[in-house]
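Protocol step 4 of 5: obtain the predicted structure for the target chain.
Materials: sequence only (see below). No template structures provided, no constraints applied. The aim of this step is simply to have a reference model before the mutagenesis design in step 5. Sequence pasted as it appears in the construct record:
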Amino acid sequence: MMRDISELEHVANEKLKEIYGSLDNVELPVNINKIVDHFELNTYVFDDPQWSHISGAWDREKNAIYINNNDSPRRQAFTLAHEIAHYCLHQDQKYDVLQRKNFPYTEETDDKEKEADAFAAALLMPRELVKNQWDMVPTVSAIASQFGVSSSTASYRLKSMGLIT
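Step 4 output (structure tokens):
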């Protein structure tokens, strides 16, 4: 069963506070590489056409995240955050492979993958900071730009927060 979004947001906020001291100290867009460094994760890029359907992967034994070099920087940031979610939330999971999938989720989508996506969105787009930005410029494109995420990630997060339908 999938954890509640408020629990995932809480964990993401606690991780950000560990790194930045306070959510007030978080600069936008969230520096995903600072988070990777904090957890002492090894990151590698791959550029192999046979793996073009894969955005990234996580290997707990090697403490490594693999990122597709052909993805946009915004997609790479989300993939890093998604794999960090597995590192933080799913201690029993030895590896993960993030394949490109279209939303909405299907019944086959694993709860851990849904949790990792929700955590990643909360890590890159903390609720309080999103609300502050939304109050100033309430458009998906402005939020995506401010937080350095794709429009689909911004929409996903704004929907989960009830700011858009």
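Step 4 remarks: The longest helix spans residues 73-89. The mean pLDDT is 91.
Proceed to step 5.
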